[in-house]
Amino acid sequence: MTGTLLIVAAGPLQVPAIQEAAARGLRTVAVDANPHAPGMALADAAYPVDIFDVRAVAAIARRENITGIMTLCTDAPVRTVATVASILGLPALSVAAAINATDKRLMRSALSAAAVPIPGFREITTIDEALGAAEKFGYPLALKVPCSSGSRGVYQINNPAELADFFQRARNLRPRGSLLVEQWMQGPEVSVEGVCCGTIPHVVQITDKLLFEGAFPVEAGHSQPSRLSPAIVAAIRRVTEAGVRALGLSDCAFHAELKVTADGPKIVEIGARLGGDRITTHLTPLSTGVNLVQSAILIALGEAPNLTPRFSRGSAIRYFHAPAPGVIAQIDGLDAIERLPGLELLYAASERDGCLAPGFVIPEIRSSLDRYGHVVFSGNNADEACERAGRALAMLKIRLCDKVASR
């Protein structure tokens, strides 16, 4: 490969794109408001600018004579990527599609207009409107901040008292504008990993998802390939492809989330980027042999990726879960986990708060940022990978010395 690739945002989720591009001979340019973001030191050129400042990012793109622009696994830069690509005539999704994919209200409207299966929803601005929606949909229901990701600002509501409480929490995140109330969908949850070559969506893999229990539906783990029936997997593919087309996505990666309800698969949301939680960088390559990071880079450069699976194996990630929030007094089992067959990654740390050790404060898990360690395993199939990951979690022993107030 030749050329210069601009990666918008340089946090941990973007680092694999910078590394992959460099390994393929591309010159890399990174922009991020945080000059100490890990990708800034890895790129050939780095600019500490606000990723939402489209004019500044476009000026950098012109100065560096870029041949492609992208983000990897983060929603926040998607609109900037689309706008700058439009200004410079580079491959990317349209600005309108980027807006659809980063505002849950507009996403719901676009999917509904195209008759793509979704839960019932209502935009609300006051607690009285929220209570009215609850009367229509019943409990449990979902309350969502429209422009957010990583499970932040998404709440499961079981009664009017919880609705009042979480409405205020959502308002703290989004003081003005409307929020979303939706029917809570019951059933297995999956994500779909793929890319759009032009306007044609290509599904690469389907991922089964586990959630932590409680009001905050944060991912506790993932596994590939999906262990749902072939008929359901085929329906998931059809609904995802219809949703991608309804949002107008093109020349981009996508990460769709769906629930398989009694009425069939329905879309939770579709992001115009790849999945985090090691889904892109570890699980999909381990289960299919497809390099999704390279595929996203090629699409940003206007080239066609090879999406043909090289094999079919299993992969799984599981996140650590202590018995309660508190301060770690002792942690055991890490050495034993390292000796298990199929181990691909042991990450005993929080990207936000550092390594697990005595004195580490374990928070209540309210978003993906609150998680504090995980393991990735491969296997001959999904069953074997999940069994190995489950065995690892059973070996991990975290003893707490003190309870702390949740964050």
CATH class of the largest domain: Alpha Beta
Question: How much strand?
Answer: 25-35%
Number of extended strands: 21
Mean pLDDT: 93
Question: What this model shows, in words?
Answer:
- Helix content is 32%, strand content 28%.
- The chain has 407 residues and is of the alpha+beta class.
- The protein has four domains: 4-90, Rossmann fold (3-Layer(aba) Sandwich), CATH 3.40.50; 120-183, ATP-grasp fold, A domain (Dna Ligase, domain 1, 2-Layer Sandwich), CATH 3.30.1490; 189-209 and 219-312, ATP-grasp fold, B domain (D-amino Acid Aminotransferase, Chain A, domain 1), CATH 3.30.470.20; 315-402, D-amino Acid Aminotransferase, Chain A, domain 1 (2-Layer Sandwich), CATH 3.30.470.20.
- The strands form five sheets. An eight-stranded antiparallel beta sheet has the order 13-12-9-10-11-14-20-16, sandwiched between helices. The chain has a four-stranded parallel beta sheet with strand order 3-2-1-4, sandwiched between helices.
- α2 (54-63) crosses α3, α3 packs antiparallel against α4 and α6 packs across α7 (160-173).
- It is globular, with a radius of gyration of 21 Å.
- It starts with a strand and ends in a 5-residue tail after the last strand.
- The mean pLDDT is 93.
